[in-house]
Design brief:
Helices cover 63% and strands 5% of the residues. It is mainly alpha-helical. The chain has one domain (29-114).
Length: 120
């Protein structure tokens, strides 16, 4: 049996799990620290947009937005895209639907904590 499948996530992996696309689609980017920082900041931007437009993004919109965002970071040289993990790797942990739901929850929390200043 594959050792990697049996190994639990490390604390760093566990902490980044909700933001790292490897746990949804098997997409691998480095450096992970930059990925997490940039994705977290992008979620704040998405929360501002959600507050401004007054409605949530659909799963399709969110996935498209995140993929375009990461592609842009790769084009800018801030991230490197490595070979993808097998799709079942991400699905076994979160998968796309649950990963997007986690981001939507983060966005909702930011919007609700905002008290009206986000749309300004």
């Amino acid at each position: 049996m594959n050792e990697e499948k049996l190994r639990p996530p490390s604390p760093m992996e566990f902490g980044s799990m909700p933001l790292d696309p490897v746990y949804a689609w098997g997409i691998v980017f480095e450096p992970v620290e930059t990925l997490i920082e940039e994705t977290s900041a992008y979620i704040e931007q998405l929360a501002r947009e959600t507050a401004e437009r007054g409605k949530e993004f659909s799963d399709e919109e969110l996935e498209s937005r995140f993929r375009s965002f990461w592609d842009r970071l790769v084009e800018e040289g801030r991230l490197r895209r490595l070979p993808d993990r097998p799709p079942e790797f991400g699905r076994a942990i979160l998968g796309p639907r649950r990963w997007l739901r986690a981001q939507r929850i983060r966005i909702q929390r930011l919007v609700s904590m905002d008290n009206g200043t986000m749309g300004q």
